[in-house]
Amino acid sequence: SDGVLVVEGGEGDKLDAPVDGAGTRALFGAHDSDVLVGNLTSESDDSVAEQIALYDLDSRSATAVDLGVEFSGVARADDQSAVLGTDGSVHVIDDATGKVVEEIAVMEPWEMTDDYTDPKPQVAIGGGFAWVTDPRDSSIALFELGTGEERTRATLADVPTSMMLVNAS
Questions:
Q1: Cβ 65 vs Cβ 93: under 8 Å
Q2: Phi and psi at residue 47, in whole multiples of 5°?
Q3: Dihedral angle sign, alpha carbons of residues 62, 33, 4, 25
Q4: Among residues 33, 36, 59, 166, which is most buried (max CB within 10 A)?
């Protein structure tokens, strides 16, 4: 409810969340990185829903990144994180600096719903690309990181509810 527990060699270490009174709902990692990304939550501060936490397991530190918008999708790869905001942009964050280094407009803005089971847009990154789903039109699109160029878009037969990228290089 207020950080993450790291267990290594049978010993536990607690890393406090980088925002007082906030907890971490879910963690996202990549096999080649010691940084985990967590989406923050707080019962008393709604603005926390616009921030992510970068937990550096190597240095045992945590940093908050304020995106300024709510978000649904979080992805990790290639020493960076990507978050899909309700503003319709993929926010790419450099793990080393904790700074947003790129914002790619990928869809029209959308709103979070109160029902957590409603399909929400998702993002996955890897190999220099971002894949983005939009349940409003059952689409998936591929964008090049660095240029923001849309490479392709397809309409799926069903509404996408989740996505996982495997072996992208």
A1: yes
A2: -70, -20
A3: positive
A4: 36
CA distance 135 to 123: 12
State the residue for tokens 């160029």. 149
Whether the CB-CB separation of 38 and 26 falls below 8 Å is answered with: yes
Q: What is the total residue count of the chain?
A: 169
CA distance readout (Å), 143 to 51, 61, 127: 23, 31, 11
- As a whole number of angstroms, the distance between CA 169 and CA 165 comes to 10
* Tens digits of pLDDT across the chain (169 residues): 888 999 989 999 899 999 998 999 889 988 888 999 999 988 888 888 899 999 999 999 999 999 999 998 899 988 899 999 999 999 999 988 999 999 999 999 999 888 888 999 999 999 999 999 999 999 999 999 999 999 999 999 999 998 888 877 6
Structure tokens at 137: 């039109």
